[in-house]
Amino acid sequence: MFNFEYFTPTEVCFGKGTVERTGEYVKKYHGTKVLIHYGGGSIVRTGLLERMKKSLDDAGIAHVELGGVVPNPHLSKVYEGIELCRKEKVDFLLAVGGGSVIDSVKAIGYGLANEGDVWDFFEHTRMADACMPLGCVLTIAAAGSEMSNSAVITKEDEDKKRAYDDDASRPKFAIMDPELTMTLPDYQTACGCTDMLMHTEERYFTNGGNMEITDSMAEALMRTVIKYARVLAKEPQNYEARAEVMWAGSLAHNGLTGCGNDGGDFASHMLEHELGGMFDVAHGAGLSAIWPSWARYVCGDCLPRFKQYALNVMGCENKGTDEEIALAGIEAMEEFYRAIGMPTTMKELGIEPTEEQILEMAHRCALATGGQIGSAKALKEEDMAEIYRMAR
Amino acid sequence: MFNFEYFTPTEVCFGKGTVERTGEYVKKYHGTKVLIHYGGGSIVRTGLLERMKKSLDDAGIAHVELGGVVPNPHLSKVYEGIELCRKEKVDFLLAVGGGSVIDSVKAIGYGLANEGDVWDFFEHTRMADACMPLGCVLTIAAAGSEMSNSAVITKEDEDKKRAYDDDASRPKFAIMDPELTMTLPDYQTACGCTDMLMHTEERYFTNGGNMEITDSMAEALMRTVIKYARVLAKEPQNYEARAEVMWAGSLAHNGLTGCGNDGGDFASHMLEHELGGMFDVAHGAGLSAIWPSWARYVCGDCLPRFKQYALNVMGCENKGTDEEIALAGIEAMEEFYRAIGMPTTMKELGIEPTEEQILEMAHRCALATGGQIGSAKALKEEDMAEIYRMAR
Fold first, then answer.
1. What pLDDT, on the 0 to 100 scale, is given for residue B284?
2. Strand A62-66 and strand A92-97: pairing?
3. B363 touching A, CB under 8 A?
4. Residue A162: pLDDT above 90?
5. H or E stretch including B6?
6. DSSP 3-state assignment of B57?
7. Which of A102, B316, B354, B384 is surrounded by the most beta carbons within 10 Å?
């Protein structure tokens, strides 16, 4: 067991009709002029933007808008947001969307609260001093960015996808109405469930010490997500299922599922970041395409945890050798991914990287991780390349 | 499932040697002159007070001291603290101890940040506008006050024990070093484990809607506490067990185990408050003395939850009628309490209230709860009296 710090200051307002409380929450955190940051036109089409604006108007809060955030959000949009906010003298940032929009708003927040180029933080050449206060109205249950301290931005002209973690960027509040997620395409719902599962798994598969209460709560969370992801594949309008999954997404990435561990593995995420940087795939689908190959490659080095996962999360029978049980758990996970329409290889994902591209991704991943990453098994550049090859 | 708000801004610093970071954390939250508030002389004897003072000195933070907080902390001590802090121009409050000391510091914080008599808040005749910032160094895993928004104070001259909940009082930080709890007497360790179990059970036994992820995480938490309370009864120096229980105590009362439910039951707590007010018993022991009688009295009205508890927490067999399974769960809980040296009746607790005293406690409990409390079963004054009688 390791010492840990746990800090989740985000005020969560969860449930039906909570969007109407947006203005109240912005006011509580002293916002007077807000940037409404969002992605595509769905928040316009569904009327969500109007509901939010009314809530802000009712609270006497001025607002400007910037849409157009894409999945794997672009640095250029961040620059655009910083410029707009400076010009408009915005003092509070509001993300309306999923992880991409929230990450984009966090990056804008860093840009506004610090001198110089915001990309420096994502290259880890310096640390941010602060971040402009921000809140979010969540419309996709997936990334957990609504309570997390991390942001991932893509420098699109260099195919670079980089993460920066800093408590200064944790949202002041998160409005979470599960009804907002009911109109998501099935594929996106499944991608989201995959992402939150992976956030928990990254912290779960470790060879460092661990804490039993963290493990057992993480297992409870994963069982819940797996159960309700299957429900949502058939009943996308099921409110209870939407709510279970939405809250799980936040808890999966706010730090709770890592308390007392060694920091987690996170190799799958880093491998996917390079995939996402090169091919612009949906993050969740990229993760499910990589994970089975990663799991097979590393499980021999982390057998007790893979066995525990098979038994306590996937409900496998306690029969056979530890290797057999571990493998049954991985296979059950693949079966689950297929059941919700997620790929388990890159081919199923629709991409077939060449050997050169694989070597390039592995090289970039090694660079981004300082040469090595992973707790279940420490991976170097050649391991990364091999996992990409296995995942073809 | 209900809408909910979740807000746990307390920064947790958990693990061995974290006491030495006290000064760093006070500084982070802008404290320049601190009240060190504590209970008996144990923090002096164990050298903890000196370690903390050194950490504050190293950070250039001035300090004054006020000890003498008792279990079921007294209003008179709160007044004393308010007066001392005003005189000494204290700007940050530091509790060193368990729930009683933290609750006392919260009450002092309300007193300092508001005009008029601080007892008004505990009588709910008005709400606090603010609370002076406070932090804590936890030495007893039990009450969960280190992350909660509640404080319970006893007006000793009127035998009144009252709670006041307000987010303004949530500690800015909690230093949690499991090693500090190793010198606790076994009885106090067991009382603490009982208290945190009860915080979870109060939220678990409801007839309102519920959320599966909350339930399954609560069940995980309770199983962990029950397992490690048994370990600690035999190996009080077991660090891992101390750590599991300490973190469980915070999670049991920071709101996590109640997300999506109807607010919980909390009848056992209110019944115990009157017991504690009249007889000055240890809170955890008072709870275990009341709970089995409460459970038997209400379980017929909340059978699905009692059955689920028996199966998922107490590991009972799924055999027999629902009533039989529910009862087996209650009996397993009684067996657990006895195994860790906790009473399951008031007689075992060493008190034998007269019928007049029972009626008086029931009357006071009804007054304190506005005439009725409970979600598993709504209890009125006559129900409260009957539960006290059953618990004799």
1. 93
2. unpaired
3. no
4. no
5. strand B4-14
6. helix
7. A102
Interface membership of A12 toward B (CB under 8 Å): yes
pLDDT at residue B85, rounded to an integer: 98
DSSP assignment string, B317-355: -S-S-HHHHHHHHHHHHHHHHHHTT--SSHHHHT----H
Q: What is the pLDDT of residues A267-298, one digit of tens each?
A: 999 999 899 888 878 889 999 999 999 999 99
The complex's ipTM?
0.94
From the list A18, A217, A247, which residue is nearest B221 (CB)? A217
Closest-CA residue to B216 (of A150, A53, A224): A224
Select A185-390's CATH number: 3.40.50.2000, 1.20.1090.10, 1.10.260.40, 1.20.1260.10.
1.20.1090.10
B220 and A211 within 8 Å at the Cβ level: the answer is no
Structure pTM?
Answer: 0.95
Q: Does domain B11-180 have CATH number 3.40.50.1970?
A: yes
Backbone angles phi, psi at A48, to 5 degrees: -65, -40
- Mind listing the pLDDT tens digit for each residue in B24-37? 999 999 999 999 99
- Residue A51's Cβ-count burial label (10 Å; 0-12, 13-18, 19+) is middle
**Minimal CA–CA distance to B254: which of A3, A255, A43?**
A255
What is the spatial distance between Cα B245 and Cα B238, in angstroms, rounded to a whole number? 11
- For chain B, the domains span 11-180, 186-390
**Could you tell me which chain A residue has the CA closest to the CA of B3?**
A15
Q: Is A315 on the interface with B (CB under 8 A)?
A: no
The CATH superfamily of B186-390 is Dehydroquinate synthase-like - alpha domain (1.20.1090.10)
DSSP assignments along A218-261, one per residue:
HHHHHHHHHHHHHHHHH-TT-HHHHHHHHHHHHHTTSSGGGTTS
pLDDT of A160: 83
Counting Cβ atoms within 10 Å, is residue B271 exposed (0-12), middle (13-18) or buried (19+)? buried
User: Cα distance from B382 to chain A (closest Cα, Å)?
Assistant: 36
